[in-house]
TrEMBL record:
InterPro entries: HIF_prolyl_hydroxylases, Oxoglu/Fe-dep_dioxygenase_dom, Pro_4_hyd_alph, Pro_4_hyd_alph_FE2OG_OXY. GO terms for molecular function: dioxygenase activity; iron ion binding; L-ascorbic acid binding; oxidoreductase activity, acting on paired donors, with incorporation or reduction of molecular oxygen. Its cofactor is L-ascorbate. Transmembrane segments: none annotated. This is Oxygenase. Residues 87-211 form the Fe2OG dioxygenase domain. It comes from the Bacteria. Pfam families: 2OG-FeII_Oxy_3. Keywords: Dioxygenase, Iron, Metal-binding, Oxidoreductase, Vitamin C.
Length: 223
């Protein structure tokens, strides 16, 4: 009897990546106030966004960020939906700590395909969230969040041969939030913002729930 599988050894499985998206997340009033605060973070408080937390690489990522932007109302709302999100994405975020920043994409800005975590880089990130804010009507075009389907078991490094990739685009709609696993390949499509005004940017508060840093753990080990 021939035990060889009839499935070709080059077969590629294409699996959609689950994204939890919630619209009208904070409601008009809270989202509006948060947008005003984001807009007020103008000028020198925003710095060129970095990759791998330390490098500015304008061919790969072009936007501006602020790392000391506090959004406790958003964190409280995330807490509220976390159990359902964990269940849907199959991840446990117990004892995690949020780490997040404010990001503004204006005319010509983008973020090329990447993962938010890897074995060498930021392995403590367990869950990605991105909360979007913008003026109404939306003062920019593009800027979709593109999430690539996984391609298994081959080519996992780049989620399949580049030309054969498949994906789904998610609109960065005001007061919506998406959650996905930081291992997912994703990108921010180029933004076109004709006015080039800071207030017309595509704003996002984006970050991760991270497992605790072992270095910060209290010294509670028994002798
Ligand atoms: O703004 C977005 O839609 C995603 C941003 C992103 O991928 C990141 O900051 O790692
Ligand atoms: Fe990302």
């Amino acid at each position: 009897m021939d035990h060889r599988s009839p499935v070709c050894t080059d077969a590629v499985w294409r699996l959609p990546v689950t994204v939890c998206r919630i619209t009208q997340f904070l409601g008009e009033q809270t989202a509006g106030a948060l947008l005003e605060r984001a807009i007020d973070s103008a000028g020198d408080t925003l710095q060129p966004s970095m990759i791998r937390d330390r490098e500015v690489v304008p061919d790969f990522r072009r936007s501006r960020s602020r790392h000391d932007f506090a959004a406790p109302e958003l964190m409280a709302a995330i807490d509220e939906v976390l159990e359902a999100v964990e269940h849907t994405l199959g991840v446990s975020c117990q004892h995690t700590e949020p780490s997040y920043s404010l990001n503004a994409h204006n005319d010509g800005d983008f973020y090329r395909p990447h993962q938010d975590t890897s074995a060498e880089f930021a392995p403590r990130r367990l869950l990605t969230f991105v909360y979007y804010l913008h003026r109404t009507p939306r003062p920019f075009d593009g800027g979709e969040l593109r999430v690539f389907d996984a391609a298994l078991p081959l080519h996992t490094e780049t989620a399949g041969r580049w030309q054969e990739r498949t994906w789904r685009d998610w609109e960065p709609e005001h007061d919506s939030i998406v959650f996905f696993l930081p291992t997912a390949w994703h990108e921010v499509r180029p933004v076109s913002c004709p006015s080039k005004q800071h207030a017309d940017s595509r704003f996002a508060i984006n970050g991760w729930l991270c497992s605790p840093d072992p270095a910060n753990r209290g010294n509670d080990a028994s002798p």
